[in-house]
Amino acid sequence: MTEDFRARAVLWPKGHLFEDFHVGQVRTHHWGRTISESDTLLFTTLTLSYNPLYSNREYAKAHGHPDIVVNPLLVFNTILGLSVQDNSEIGGPFVGVGKLTYHQPVYPGDTLVSKSTTVACRVSASKPENGIVTWHTEGINQHGVRVIDFERSNIVRRRNPNGEAK
Amino acid sequence: MGKLSELTGKDNYFEDFKVGQVFRHARGKTIEGLENVLITNLVMNTAQAHFNEHAMQVAPIQMATPIRERVSYGGVNFSVIMGLASQDCCENALAELGMDNIRLLTPVVHGDTLYAYSEVLSVMDTEREDAGEVVFRHYGTNQRDEQVFQGDRRVLLKRRSHWGDR
Lengths: 166, 166
Known about the structure:
The complex is a heterodimer of chains A (about 170) and B (about 170). Chain A is α+β, with helices and mostly antiparallel strands. Chain A contains four helices and six strands; from the N terminus they run αββαααββββ. In chain A, strands 1, 2, 3, 4, 5 and 6 form a six-stranded antiparallel sheet that branches. Chain B is elongated and about 60 Å long. Chain B starts with about 20 loop residues before the first strand and ends with a helix. Helix content of chain B is about 20%, strand content about 30%.
């Protein structure tokens, strides 16, 4: 039986390669994520991110917030994390992130969705079997308000490394 | 709750930072599955190079690297490095405003230890009289003193003149 199911199995693949991207393409990424209080406290304490806005509700309230503030680096990592399967899961390593702005605080209970627009695709000059793709990625909360945006670039392998560059 | 100012440092308000200062932060942190796998999975980053040890042993093609073990997710690495810098640079922040020029320079694997340094790139008045804006360039190194990370973080810091006795 073991041999049988393995022999019959077809890989259900994940991710995208260089040829799957073109400038102007917009993808809303899967799942979304409601950020809980335990998420942000765990993240904040594990990363030693010591600002009481992220760990002390009364301190946060005394600064005009309704609750503890979700650690902005958790917001960033969640919005990037949700974009990984579509953008970079099988492609290759991270090149850089820039032009990141936090637009609004996020609070426990908020739900975030991630969305990316492809803004640049080029073949690597030094390693032509690879491309470099840049996305503008945004995090949107349950009110439709943008809470974060940034640009990210990754190496993305080409499906046809000897084919015509797009 | 008593005075807010008793809960945070006395030497890291806006007035304390001058362009060109460089700080070495006191603590390091060793990256293990607790940081890498937990946070990678918490933020739903689906790239299994960060959480499938077996896949890395048999076919590390995705990372285009000879590394035969899980590679710590870059977002975790620099969240820890920025965390190590947080008490000194951001403990009195009213908000983190953004990031730029994020670069990951050396892969990190479980067992590596990260350290943080920060340089003051700019200090600026804002429309708020009780706070100013500071841009820090954070640097991260590993236990071999190799640079693993560089990135800029823009924060809104309390002024001692308005917050130091509240």
